[in-house]
Design brief:
- The complex is a heterodimer of chains A (69) and B (305).
- Chain A has one domain.
- In chain A, 68% of the residues lie in helices and 12% in strands.
- Chain A has helices at 15-52, 60-68; strands at 4-7, 11-14.
- Chain A has a two-stranded antiparallel ribbon with strand order 1-2.
- The radius of gyration of chain A is 27 Å and the shape is rod-shaped.
- With 305 residues, chain B is mainly α.
- Chain B has two domains: 12-166, Tetracycline Repressor, domain 2 (Orthogonal Bundle); 168-305.
- Chain B contains 13 helices and one strand, in the order E-H-H-H-H-H-H-H-H-H-H-H-H-H.
- The chains are: A mainly alpha (69), B mainly alpha (305).
- Chain A binds chain B through residues 5, 7, 9-14, 17, 20-21, 24-25, 27-28, 31-32, 42, 45-46, 48-50, 53, and chain B through 1-7, 9-10, 12-13, 44, 46-47, 49-50, 53, 112-113.
- Strand 2 (11-14) of chain A pairs parallel with strand 1 (3-4) of chain B.
Chain lengths: 69, 305
């Protein structure tokens, strides 16, 4: 693996700077990955709960109006 | 042409986390959870968790926007100069984008998973803190803390509405309790860190109106807080357990506020009564809301009428 990063064809960082840059990126990506997985699990659980929960029953007044029709 | 340079390190994820003011968030989560648990009705645990998460993330988003806007002020105060932006560990755009992303995501998820009334109140609370308080009124009026208290007062209201789907007098009372609790809580702190606020030109009450006026107002708000704290029991929204606890806690709070309200500091003052009032105010709010939940639990178990 190369020890330099080129930005816009001109900038480059080298040596220990690159190691720190990569370590910081890696830590951020790891945290972001955990958050995305947790969100996927949460949205799945919300969907299951929403599907399983019956819709609210119409109020007595609304039911009466429906029967009158 | 090629030249060697040092690119700035990307901000650490811990600094993004720090932007959300995690310590403030604990109180937000706690009061939101209490509002939810005290509300009449039931909510699925997954949805309850989602609602609390949205309240917390929304609060985190508004805290990030607050720090983005106030980065220059924070640099001038000892208490805040080590935050990610004034310390130079993060660029302002990242904080701004992070704040907007958290705020937007929390409102959308709240709307889709819980309901649009709760989402609308959450959106307004974020706007209230990030713009009405931070941008508009904090630099303009010494009553900024009174107005800022409103932002912290929304979580129990949102928690309650997440369960019931509508607003009644009870959640409004919970809102008012935190609203009236905030000025004595914060001004007690401002009395012994006033030099810091004066340095950055924020019109905090002790700086603008003077110590005597601030102390008098601490006392006034503590007096107003007492009937409000007991009101949920008086209107029949809670039972005796909460009513008695609220009375005892509020009398203790008032006693400490009287000591602060009726004294004047002297050169070299240790400001013990002010520090004691500030410390007790945190305990007061936690205990009051915890008793709200205990009371609801006792009623559901049939231990009280």
């Amino acid at each position: 693996m190369t020890d330099e990063i080129r930005g816009e064809g001109t900038a480059q960082i080298q040596g220990t700077d690159l190691a720190a840059f990569r370590a910081r990126q890696k830590a951020r990506n790891r945290v972001l990955g955990v958050i995305l997985i947790a969100l996927a699990v949460l949205f799945f659980a919300i969907t299951i709960v929403k599907i399983a929960t019956p819709p609210p029953k119409p109020s007595a007044q609304a039911a009466g109006a429906e029967m009158a029709h | 042409m090629k030249h060697a340079t040092t690119l700035p390190l990307p901000a650490d994820w811990r600094d993004f986390f720090a932007l959300t003011k995690p310590r403030v968030m604990t109180l937000v989560i706690f009061t939101g959870l209490c509002g939810m648990l005290a509300a009449p009705g039931t909510i699925h645990p997954v949805l309850a968790f989602t609602a609390i998460l949205c309240i917390a993330v929304g609060a985190g988003g508004s805290a990030a926007l607050n720090q983005w806007w106030e980065a220059d002020l924070d640099r001038g105060m000892k208490r805040t100069r080590n935050r990610p932006l004034p310390a130079g560990r993060m660029d302002r755009e990242s904080a701004r984008d992070f704040g907007f992303a958290l705020a937007g995501a929390s409102v959308m998820v709240m709307g889709v998973a819980i309901g649009w009334l709760a989402a609308a109140i959450l959106a307004f609370s974020i706007f209230y803190y990030a713009w009405i308080y931070t941008v508009w009124l904090k630099p303009r009026t010494p009553q900024n803390i009174v107005i800022g208290g409103g932002a912290g007062a929304f979580p129990p209201l949102i928690g309650w509405v997440a369960v019931t789907g509508h607003i009644t007098l009870m959640p409004v009372l919970l809102f008012l309790i935190i609203f009236f609790w905030t000025p004595p809580h914060f001004w007690a702190l401002a009395l012994y860190v006033q030099t810091d606020y004066a340095k950055v030109g924020i019109p905090m009450m002790p700086v603008v109106a003077g110590e005597r006026s601030t102390r008098r107002q601490i006392l006034i708000y503590a007096v107003l807080l007492l009937p409000l704290a007991v009101a949920p029991a008086l209107i029949g929204g809670t039972g005796r357990i909460y009513g008695l606890s609220a009375l005892v806690l509020s009398l203790a709070f008032l006693a400490l506020a009287v000591r602060v309200g009726l004294r004047q500091s002297v050169p070299g003052d240790t400001m013990k009564p002010e520090k004691r009032l500030f410390a007790f105010s945190i305990l007061y709010l936690f205990a009051l809301f915890a008793m709200l939940v205990v009371d609801r639990f006792a009623t559901l178990q049939g231990w009280q009428a």
